[in-house]
Structure of Reverse transcriptase domain-containing protein:
Amino acid sequence: MIEKLHLSRNSKTISKIQSILQKGFTEGECPAIAGLILTELFIEAIENNRNIFFALTDAQKAFDIVWHDGLFREMFKCNIVGDNWLLFKEWYNNVQTKIKWQGQFSHTFPELQGVRQGGVWSPAAYKIFINSLLKIYETEQLGARIGSVYCGVPTVADDVTLVSNDPFELQSMLDIQMFHANKQRYIISSQKSCVLQRKSNETHSWNINGQTLKTPDTATHLGIKRDNGSKTGTKEVVPDRIQTARKTVYALMGAGLHGLNGINPKVSLHLINCYVIPRLLYGLDVICLSAKDIKNLSTYFIKLMKQIQHLPERTANTGTLLLLGQIPIEAVVHKRMLCTFRNIVANKNSVEYNIANRQLAIKSKDSKSWFIRIVELADKYELPSPHELLVNPPCKYKWKKLVSKVVNFFWLDKLKTDAKEKSTLKLLNIEDTIIGKTHNIWFSGGAEPFAVKRCNIKSKLACGTYTLQQDRAKFSRQSVSPICQLCKHEPEDREHFIIKCKVLEEVRSPFIDKLRCYIKDIASGILFDELFQSNNNLLQLIIDCSKFHFLTNQQHVHIEKISAEYAFSLHQKRSSMLE
């Protein structure tokens, strides 16, 4: 409690002296913005046909080897003086530590370096410790710029990245960092540090303390894999994110995140939104995705949505998403990008705000700049212009709500339009779809595996992907007869299978009678006759009763349970007879 009060008392002092390029552990700042700065620097270099060099340096165990006397000196230089300074210094006097291992404690030993593990002050203390290095670069304007905006050392806590358009200037920046490291008694690892340079015919080398740094084709910065050959320097990011997401899905299989024998897809979707989507989309809101990247993301996401519903590959993508009340993954990326832009314009004294102001004023529509992409998204979703937002930043909550509303509306309308063109989805109720709410087929299903199996058969019938004899004939180009193999009377389509086949009448009758009894108490005589005397209406009632608006939501759920059990019983009978 005392530590927290002490920090709050000195927070304004720290914010005044802190480098504008420090994005870690800072109120109002987002660490991912450091990645956006690198994205803009790379694109700026390509569009101006200039070299660009990124030195990704790694301080060994940075927080654990902070030299206490050096930290106290830096705090004093930052105007944390008097009792404030003495109180902080007292916390690090005679610090004793013991290690617990398998229930046993070691002997105590003095802790002579490093900031306190888990301490409230620790992140701020390290920022003060490293701040003098960043201020040197900032004061001397060493490093790359975007126009007149200095961007030479985008930093997140101990992750310092040196950026320059000149290889000799970059070596000077490395020398300054090594001087600071030697002065403050910490180590820069030459094995873990590297320099990523845009591909060119020129070859350069850089060194730290006489050891040459590696110059790989790819390197990871803040979890974002950068490369030196592509147009945006991020061609490896999406494949890497997909691989990470796939590993996350495998890890969740023990919790039932798989198809037919797993949990209900509405629960699976919740797990995916909580654990998989954040890892899949990490960093994608601060890079420029190509059409190929979007395609790969969408392909993986649609495949995952089909897997958790145990739907075949040939299921219409729109049907797959509408059953779960889900928008395409591309739309989720757009939401994140627009929310990131709002965070930028709300922070008017930041580097990223100045970059946004400059890029929006100077760049043409043909530019690959991230901020021009924001202009395109604002036009696409009919949102306020980014130029307007620079002047009048919206409230965070209102902007997030507005973005979610317009993006959901745009993609829902697009999904509905696409679904109307799919003959297989003509029986699926798409008009009442609400983004974020699963379809009645899955909503009414229980949590037990057997209920999931019943709903799975129903979802295949609703999407037109339950394989019947007519489908086999179509796939074989009519080399297989479309005639029902059970009754031998007519082609086996959905209507024949569910309503007409005489061989399945024994299974059908009890369920139709059950539906009649239930509907009779709800519908008037004329409406009741229209439902059960018309094959089309009866088929619609069984496949997706939510199209009938005279029924309440509770009645939809009850009818759905009856029809799901009915469809599964037909499936079992048909399968056993065809074996």
About this structure: The first strand starts at residue 53 and ends at 56. The longest helix spans residues 553-578. The chain has 23 helices and 14 strands.
